[in-house]
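In response to the reviewer comment on reproducibility (Comment 2.3), we provide here a single inverse folding case reported in full, input and output, so that an independent group could reproduce the run without further information from us. The structure tokens appear first.
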């Protein structure tokens, strides 16, 4: 399929001393292109204190870009930074070849559009595209006005938001945005109801979070045989998946895998996926998965931590899972992380979701974190104290009652307070 791949020219500007960071970001942009089914034909980057207001790159570089696009027969141009609608128009006008210019966020949204499977995921992507992409699709609207939605990969930059034609006027875009927001609200309320039903089961919830491609889905598959698509692509997972996992000692946990994080993810994109991210963030414990084989794992972890804070998940008990230890090159960095973690009291484990190494330790740690302040007990309640069963039904979790001649045998999970109160009945824990 190599010959059908679209050819992209990537562009970036960076300030003095910013070259290294820009390179890292560009390498990631290359991977995003690959995920979207494009190959990178050339990279145009320029050191500038400030991006040009009109065309980001300086005029000489724009000429070079135009020349490259023509000679390489490029199909699209992707800027690593955010572009305004007028910058896109100016750039498209300056490039001789009749090809679209898009930015990193538009590319990410294209990938999201391809990977969204659930109704909620699709609605979220369409809404984000209408809000972000549609005002930017100006100059080259002609070719970009195809129908969107479930198109196959490789159509990057050639897709409009959702099923909306780009020619539709602003009023209709506004109406569609309002309708989508309403629909999403309804879906989110449903999710809320499902969430509170699950809450009542009292099973601790574990959110699997981390940078894209860290191995979150692979880890959930290894633990539960969930059969989730895990691949060497960015944003393989868009919709959250929850699976119950029973630890070898019998504790039940609900594990949720969700969309990964990436650097330079605009805040409004995060907001668009807020309700699915909440699924992971509103859990009792977080498993923060890190690709320890990636030379950038430290900065990726910083990005993840920052985004988690933005989502209001700071301070939650977090288990740092250093994954892909089977192919980890930088052992020294790992040793450093381990000693740093032990000094700061952070919980860390080193695993390979692929080979299963370290998974036993991970489960032990996870269980003790998730069950902290919770006691799985068996109670024997004499018939004359039968009234306490009301309290247990109301406040304990995972309750099973067995009515016997000599009293009521009850298995359940108690929090610290209830545990202290019912201590006299406990026969086993
Ligand atoms: N060698 C090795 N590869 C792994 C390991 N865990 C995951 N991978 C590979 O890493 C790639 C990404 O794994 P995923 O599980 O899809 O990663 P993810 O975090 O769910 O990624 P997104 O859903 O895209 O955010 C896949 O090709 C996996 O096979 C591991 O422990 N060792
Ligand atoms: Mg995944």
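Designed residues, in position order:
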């Amino acid at each position: 399929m190599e010959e059908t791949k679209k050819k992209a020219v990537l562009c970036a500007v960076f300030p003095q001393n910013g070259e290294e960071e820009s390179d890292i970001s560009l390498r990631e942009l290359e991977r995003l292109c690959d995920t979207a089914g494009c190959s990178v034909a050339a990279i145009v980057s320029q050191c500038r204190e400030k991006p040009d207001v009109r065309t980001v790159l300086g005029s000489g570089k724009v000429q070079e870009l135009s020349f490259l696009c023509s000679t390489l027969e490029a199909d699209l141009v992707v800027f690593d930074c955010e572009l305004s609608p007028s910058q896109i128009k100016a750039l498209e006008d300056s490039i001789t070849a009749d090809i679209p210019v898009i930015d990193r966020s538009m590319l990410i949204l294209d990938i999201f559009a391809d990977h969204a499977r659930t109704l909620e995921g699709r609605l979220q992507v369409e809404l984000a595209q209408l809000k972000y992409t549609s005002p930017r699709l100006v100059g080259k609207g002609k070719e970009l006005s195809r129908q969107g939605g479930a198109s196959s990969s490789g159509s990057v930059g050639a897709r409009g938001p959702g099923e909306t034609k780009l020619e539709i006027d602003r009023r209709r875009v506004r109406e569609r945005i309002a309708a989508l927001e309403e629909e999403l609200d309804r879906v989110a309320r449903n999710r809320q109801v499902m969430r509170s039903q699950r809450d009542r089961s009292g099973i601790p919830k574990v959110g699997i979070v981390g940078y894209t491609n860290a191995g979150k889905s692979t880890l959930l598959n290894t633990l539960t045989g969930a059969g989730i698509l895990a691949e060497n692509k960015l944003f393989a997972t868009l919709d959250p998946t929850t699976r119950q996992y029973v630890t070898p000692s019998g504790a039940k946990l609900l594990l949720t895998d969700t969309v990964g994080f990436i650097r330079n993810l605009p805040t409004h994109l995060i907001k668009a996926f807020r309700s699915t991210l909440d699924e992971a963030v509103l859990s009792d414990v977080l498993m923060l998965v890190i690709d320890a084989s990636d030379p950038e794992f430290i900065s990726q972890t910083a990005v993840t931590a920052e985004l988690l804070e933005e989502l209001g998940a700071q301070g939650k008990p977090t288990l740092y899972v250093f994954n892909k230890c089977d192919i980890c090159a930088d052992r020294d960095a790992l040793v450093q992380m381990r000693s740093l973690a032990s000094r700061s009291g952070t919980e860390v484990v080193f695993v390979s979701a692929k080979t299963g190494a370290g998974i036993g330790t991970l489960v032990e740690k996870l269980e003790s974190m998730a069950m902290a302040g919770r006691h799985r007990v068996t109670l024997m309640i004499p018939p004359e104290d039968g009234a306490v069963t009301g309290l247990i039904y109301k406040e304990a979790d995972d309750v099973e009652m067995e009515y016997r001649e000599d009293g009521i045998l009850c298995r359940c999970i108690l929090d610290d307070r209830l545990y202290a109160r019912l201590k006299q009945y406990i026969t086993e824990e």
